[in-house]
């Protein structure tokens, strides 16, 4: 256990090294979004930079200092806020007027308050749910999306994690979660938790909040991280996290119908998007990311083969930072040159109607006087690249972010077109779709 813990501590430390250095906000504030709710927000990085809004998980999780560090502070104007009832927003852990659609409009109010015409939207887990809901409602205000650990809040996703499914992989951590509910009520664990989390018995509230939060924290990484589980021992954080999550989940996310986010994805298929997904994500299994990608093939799906759910796992952290850096580089490079119309490309050309009727073109200008032919040279054969450097048959030629990456045969290559697995020297492989 100690060896595993030390290994996890090293991995957590390694994940933090993938991030930009710690940074403090240059501005903090509050915004009254209703008569009842006031949200806390902060801005970091470049005040005149490209705006990006960070949407935290949960719902109810709140923001933290490391959430500022996915973005190049010299380029990005980073906006983070605590959603209703979370973190420093008030009233704390409040469920009244707290739905997905209230949060979507809060994002819009914050955007207008900060005079931002359009921004990048970044979110993981519940943050990906909210990002999709916001983008599908206000697509004209979204430059691009960076998503992680896709959660579309379908009933089957909820049952997998809170009723039966992940329990088969983490039976040791499932037992305390199960023990908080009497056996007679275990046929519907979410409803049983909700009754206690919203009841008048404060002791029962706190006990259930701790059990609910510990279950999620314990299963969020590929390797259980005791330091991460410690978050659940903070009663204030755990109460907001458990109450607000459970409130949303027993109400099916306040969507009109199951699977609404995937069904409405046509509204945003024109928006650039990168999806980073841990292969062994127990909280938000890869099936949701795959279903979203199948409905939205233009989005790039990057599967991290040695990661779970958390954004603070090495492979996931690196790819999220890389996605934000890639968008920065694209914007700095400016728009691509407009394509030259065919008529202009053919201007000054004529057909050699005698030898190649209407099929071959020659310059209209007179050829320059012929110069003496150079002496013939002996052709030298270029060295053939090794087979390991060549992409497998049928694989696309998109550039992999690592400059010296090599193609590696993947047993999954036949699953879908345009899938490839690449591995940097000495690094872990990733599956790239799209």
What does this structure look like?
This protein has 434 residues and is α/β, with parallel strands linked by helices. Helix content is 33%, strand content 15%. The strands form 2 sheets. The protein has an 11-stranded mixed beta sheet, sandwiched between helices. A two-stranded antiparallel sheet has the order 9-10. Helix 11 links the parallel strand 7 and strand 8 (300-304). The longest helix is centred in the C-terminal third of the chain and has 20 residues, at 314-333. The protein starts with a helix and ends with a strand. Residues 350-368 and 373-422 have low confidence and may be disordered.
Compile the SSE list and pairings:
Elements: H1 2-17, E1 27-32, E2 38-45, E3 50-55, E4 76-81, H2 100-113, E5 119-124, H3 126-137, E6 142-148, H4 155-162, H5 171-179, H6 189-197, H7 202-218, H8 226-229, H9 235-250, H10 260-263, E7 273-278, H11 286-295, E8 300-304, H12 314-333, H13 342-346, E9 349-351, E10 361-363, E11 406-407, E12 419-423, E13 430-433
Parallel strand pairs: 3-4, 3-5, 5-6, 6-7, 7-8
Antiparallel strand pairs: 1-2, 2-4, 8-13, 9-10, 11-12, 12-13
Helix pairs in contact: 1-12, 2-3, 5-7, 6-9, 7-9
Key terms:
globular, 11-stranded mixed beta sheet, two-stranded antiparallel sheet, single chain, 13 strands, 13 helices, alpha/beta, 434 residues
In a nutshell, what does this entry contain?
This protein is of the alpha/beta class. It is built from 13 helices and 13 strands. Helix content is about 35%, strand content about 15%.
């Amino acid at each position: 256990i100690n060896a595993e813990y030390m290994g996890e501590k090293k991995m957590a430390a390694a994940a933090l090294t993938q991030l930009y250095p710690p940074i403090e906000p240059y501005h903090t504030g509050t915004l009254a979004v209703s008569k009842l709710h006031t949200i806390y927000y902060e801005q970091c990085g470049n005040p005149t930079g490209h705006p990006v809004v960070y949407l935290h998980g949960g719902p109810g999780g709140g923001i933290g200092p490391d959430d500022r560090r996915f973005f190049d502070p010299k380029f990005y104007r980073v906006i983070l806020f605590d959603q209703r009832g979370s973190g420093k927003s008030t009233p704390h852990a409040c469920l009244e007027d707290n739905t997905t659609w209230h949060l979507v409009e809060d994002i819009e109010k914050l955007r207008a308050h900060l005079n931002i015409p359009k921004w990048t939207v970044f979110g993981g887990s519940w943050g990906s749910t909210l990002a999709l809901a916001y983008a599908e409602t206000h697509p004209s205000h979204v430059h691009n999306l960076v998503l992680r650990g896709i959660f579309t809040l379908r009933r089957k996703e909820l049952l997998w994690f809170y009723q039966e499914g992940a329990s088969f992989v983490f039976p040791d951590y499932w037992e305390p979660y199960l023990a908080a509910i009497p056996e007679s009520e275990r046929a519907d664990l979410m409803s049983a938790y909700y009754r206690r989390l919203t009841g008048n018995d404060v002791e029962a509230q706190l006990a259930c909040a701790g059990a609910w939060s510990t279950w999620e924290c314990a299963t969020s990484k590929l390797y259980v991280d005791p330091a991460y589980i410690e978050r659940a021992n903070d009663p204030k954080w755990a109460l907001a996290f458990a109450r607000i999550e459970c409130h949303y989940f027993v109400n099916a996310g306040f969507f009109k119908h199951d699977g609404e986010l995937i069904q409405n994805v046509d509204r945003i298929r024109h928006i650039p998007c990168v999806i980073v997904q841990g292969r062994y994500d127990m909280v938000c299994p890869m099936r949701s990311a795959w279903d979203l990608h199948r409905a939205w093939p233009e989005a790039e799906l990057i599967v991290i083969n040695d990661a779970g759910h958390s954004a603070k796992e090495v492979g996931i952290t690196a790819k999220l930072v890389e996605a934000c850096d890639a968008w920065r580089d694209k914007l700095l490079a400016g728009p691509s040159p407009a394509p030259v119309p065919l008529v202009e490309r053919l201007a000054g050309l004529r057909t050699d109607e005698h030898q190649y009727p209407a099929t071959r073109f020659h310059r209209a200008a007179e050829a320059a006087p012929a110069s003496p032919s150079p002496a013939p040279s002996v052709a030298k054969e270029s060295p053939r690249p090794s087979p390991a450097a060549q992409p497998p048959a049928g694989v696309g030629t998109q550039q992999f972010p690592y400059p010296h990456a090599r193609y590696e045969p993947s047993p999954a290559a036949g699953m879908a077109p345009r899938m490839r697995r690449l591995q940097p020297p000495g690094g872990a492989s990733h599956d790239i779709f799209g």
